[in-house]
Amino acid sequence: MRVAVGSENPVKVAATEAAIGDLPGATVDAVMIDSGVAEQPTGLAETRTGASNRARRAYEAGGYTLGVGIEGGVATLGTDDLYLVMWAAVTDGERVELAAGPSVRLPDSVTERVRAGEELGPVMDDAFDREGVARGEGAIGIFTGGTVDREDALRSAVAGALGPFVTASYDD
Per the UniProt record, which EC number(s) apply here (predicted)? Predict the structure, then answer.
């Protein structure tokens, strides 16, 4: 089974490899793909669209059994607060399955900057005096005190979207 993940971000690749786990003969290739959405997706719909676009485009890169797309964004979730959200999509070229990772509320200081048009990754680097948060622990790692890091969160989302392709649970 050849799997393409629509990103060269090492955390997204590692999360996909972890979700694929011990599937017999499974390999994961990183494929640079444009999400087709804003650099900082806003809202659940745009974040899901970015994940789906990445999955389809990765699959279409050629010769893959499955394409995986992962997208992080921000959304209000029915409140005035802004939350970090993450979605994964998996496609076999015929259907696209989606699943979400955990969501956490962003602090007001971060929310203000993101609402002013800044991208979350650079805001996190600046606000928390770090470098490469988006390629490491992620905002989720900072906001959970390291209990959940970005790879853990994204692995869960990919595993959820992968489920219908690797279990008989959805054969109804």
Answer: 3.6.1.73
Helix, strand, or coil (residue 107) = coil
d(CA 123, CA 17): 28
pLDDT, one tens digit per residue, over 8-36 is 999 999 999 999 988 888 999 999 999 99
Beta strands per DSSP E along 31-141 = 66-75, 83-91, 96-100, 104-105
Sign, CA dihedral 77-11-18-39, equals positive
Consult the annotation and say whether 92 binds a ligand.
Answer: no
Nearest to 162 by CA among 96, 103, 71: 96
8 A C-beta contact, residue 37 and residue 49: yes
What domains are defined for the chain? 2-104+150-165 (3.90.950.10)
- Map residue 75 onto helix, strand or coil: strand
Section 78-104 average pLDDT:
97
In this structure, the number of other CB atoms found within 10 A of the CB of residue 118 comes to 15
Query: Alpha-carbon distance 6 to 61, whole Å?
Result: 9
Q: Which two tokens stand for residue 81?
A: 């607060």
pTM over 0.85: yes
Q: Do 9 and 135 meet the contact criterion of CB atoms below 8 Å apart?
A: yes
